Queue: 2 jobs
Job 1
Amino acid sequence: MVELSVLQQRFGIELVESTFRDNRRIDVPAAKLFDLLSCLKSDHGFNTLIDMTAVDYLEYEGATDRFGVVYMLLDVFGGERVIVRTAVNLPDPKLPSVYSLWRGADWMEREVFDMFGIVFDGHPDLRRILMPEEFAAFPLRKDYPLKGRGERHNFPVITRAGS
Amino acid sequence: MAVGLPENVFMTKLDAAASWARSNSLWPMPFATACCGIELMATAASRHDLARFGAEVMRFSPRQCDLLIVAGRVVMKMLPVLQRIWLQMPEPKWCISMGACACSGGVFDTYAVVQGVDRFIPVDMYVPGCPPRPEQLLAAVIDMQAKVRRTGTVMGKEFMARDTPMGPEPFESEERYRIQDANLVQLGGFSAAMTSAGMKRGAGNHG
Ligand code: SF4
């Protein structure tokens, strides 16, 4: 099991650790995120990025940051899991891409970009993955209306005589 | 008529003969995007046996079919594909919208799901249900046959009369309010959808 004190010594910063139902979570500032993740991968054997996602904390009770980005790591051989969380804010939500560490991050980062508009620096191909290319908004942001802004009606109408 | 008809000969109109032939050989294009597609498959399978009505030849090329069955929800990214398939089908062609989602969006009233395919392509027959029973789809096919026999013409003249969009208004007034509301919230960042008016007001509200 990776000791928090080891990581803290190595990076010289306070890391906050918490647990929820066997899930071990480490909060890290965005500036140290990439170093921490690459250290976890190379020195502590977390060779798989199970999932990565983001949360919009707009109007969430007690939240100080707008977005939380979550990385779930697994050590396939040791069976250990850890969740690394970081926070980003508007107007320029940006994080380093972890594509160079885990190739699986490719589509996950594209999805987070597509849904929340968080930009991943160094991603080789950061395009929308679920929404159409010409879509202008980021639909999982809490200030985007559930029913959209009329994008779903933006198509030519084909009549029977005209087809 | 002075000349009596020989036995085994009967007279009809060309329109009626063509419609009779067409109605008994509808070749469906299964546009199955969601759970309704499973029911469509069940309709074609042995228990319900769509073949009894001459519509069992599912063609996966739009060039070879004349009955589009839209079974399932259609999202923004899929709609251009659906329209293209409809345009690729040769005349004469008909369309069945199967299930609540294809007819009206169903429970999926969200930003990405088209609220009824009839807003954007012409539909001949609606099948309600979530999902409709195979019997309902069979009933729709039978009704479709009746419609073809009743209204069909050999040159497809009846289609030319349908020159107005048939679905509801693609843009309801509520949608405009939603756009306004959304623009009141400050979006920040690089949201391209923001209007300049929204930006001014948003900056005032959230400082
Ligand atoms: S109408 Fe119901 S069964 Fe059919 S696609 Fe929609 S949710 Fe699925």
Note: The longest strand of chain B covers residues 28-32.
Job 2
Amino acid sequence: MPTVEVLPSKPGVSAGAGWAYTTLPPANAVSVPASTGGRGARNRHSNFENTAARQRQINSRISDLEKDNYRDVHIPLPKKESGARASARSKTTSTQNVRRILLSQKTFVNHLADEEALNPTFRSRRASTAEEGDEMDLDNTTPADECALEDGESGGPPLGYARAVSRPSRRPSRTFCEICGYWGTYRCGKCGARYCGLECGGVHQETRCQKFF
Amino acid sequence: MPPRTLIVDNGAYTIKTGFLKVIPSYSDCHLIPNCIARSRDRRSLVGTQLETCRDFGGMAFRRPVEKGYLVNWEAEKEIWDRTFLEPESPVYVDAPSATTLVLTEAPNAPLSLQNNTDQIVFEEYEFAEYLRYVGPATIPWNDLPALFSGQPPTPPPTKPAEAALIVDTGFSHTHIYTTLLGQPWNSATRRIDIGGKFLTNYLKELVSLRTWNMMEEPYLISQVKEAVCFVSTDFSGDLERCKRLRLPQNPIVRDYVLPDYNTGKGGFARNHIPKQRGPAAPDDEQVMVLGNERFAVPELLFNPADVGLKQAGVVECVLQALEMVPERMRPVLLANIVLTGGNANIPGFQQRFEQELRPLAPSEAAIRVAKPHDPEKFVWLGAARMACDEEFMKRRKATRKEYMEHGLLYCQKKMAGEDVRAGGEVAVKDTATERDRRENRTHRRR
Ligand SMILES: [Zn+2]
Ligand SMILES: [Zn+2]
């Protein structure tokens, strides 16, 4: 029997005033399978979403979803053609600046770090910890009406990359069954994966479960 | 002789580029894949060479634009050289030294990347004149009043639109970008780290977990995405429908017949044919069945938290942006919302956007949302029309001569509209005209 846990419909996460979408998963709509997790396990698991381990899981998945290729591959430039065409196209000499730029292997993250070292106000003060919750980033939430308005009216200089990022959503979060994509009402007590019911839970246990604890 | 002007919207997925004509139109804009692709037989395909390829199986991509910003010039130069310096190219630049380059960048680009780009443009390509400008900031030069009223655009030059709230959703990310009197309102810029690539990878992850292992097939999956995905206007309802109904009656489920690279037969989407239903489906075809993935994937644009990303979706971000704008400006922005970028083309995007925004906005506010005919090329078109604004261009563009004489910083200040050493009077005049325009506008408001 898999270790399962029904997630309580959390009090206090009702949608904020005026929000149109309150698509909470039907938390207790399904009969409760027996839990063999015991009290200790249950407490441990109900905090699972806020653990650093869970946050690492999420971060690693997000960085996978941002990749250009599934595997890291090096794709070299095609070999230089010889003869007239190649020489018509490429200059024989480049400036020192250009040579330096072409040889640079810096990634975007490197450039961003340089920028923030030079100009600390561009840095987001938001800590990227799991406990961060919905705490607002004060950097970009100064209400507009306190900014300079009439005289030389403007929205100020560019915010910089880190401070321009969206604040977290105010909506309650949703979870989905990893097997079929329906609401993820249950959570695997071993690895934290979500599933919708007994059938998908069984498939998960047999084929997918990556024991986490 | 007036120099030719080349407009380049240098996107992560495609370069949108073409020469400026008297009346710019979408048809002058070419789409060049901004990548070096590597096929499984280990050939490297640069830019448009990708179009000659018939086998996209296992193809890998190197993209010079990372997270929406031009990072790798080694690869970009290879693509630019073939695009702009080869006589066969439709955008062949025969004489950069007699050409003005207008180049777009994403908002909030790191300075070191801007430095690199500016140096390459002046020192390697030796363009005569150059203006680097934030992509969505060119949108107000489009004829937005005509767009909202469904009229054909007035030929340029026109002055920038009074107000625009731009939702620019591209390959790397999505921006909410606000302009008033053509000027960006920088504090209201918001970025969501969800774009077309993220959606493709999410679809790839879902189908690989559920049906076919497609982890090495980003090209195919992006085609599947374009063929079947839509934004739901009733997310929980559609999720229920997918769960409760057995396949044959399910109105959402679709088949994607996978391409056969051996025979050259392309992939395509069709209504679902159940396997056991006899001869309708040929036996040898391989079919990917898609259900709730069709709408759960683009849903990320509205709910990034569905994959654990601690960011708000496009509509919530519009409200975050509006908070940063003076209250009296908010109504005019809500009435001038423009959707651009490739994801704006996903069926249902505009309907869902309007549906979510309406109840969140003040009930007396008029909301107008427009999607241009070609959202992918709309920034290019805006940049082209901006280039027709001679007075603006004269103020902002930097010349190679200025670069040689006054250096990089001078040119960057000029392009950013800041005071420059030798041209203090430019800035003064600027403020005066701006103030006039503002005052006119304020009177109209009241
Ligand atoms: Zn399920
Ligand atoms: Zn598990």
Note: Residues 197-299 of chain B form a domain with the Actin; Chain A, domain 4 fold (CATH 3.90.640.10).
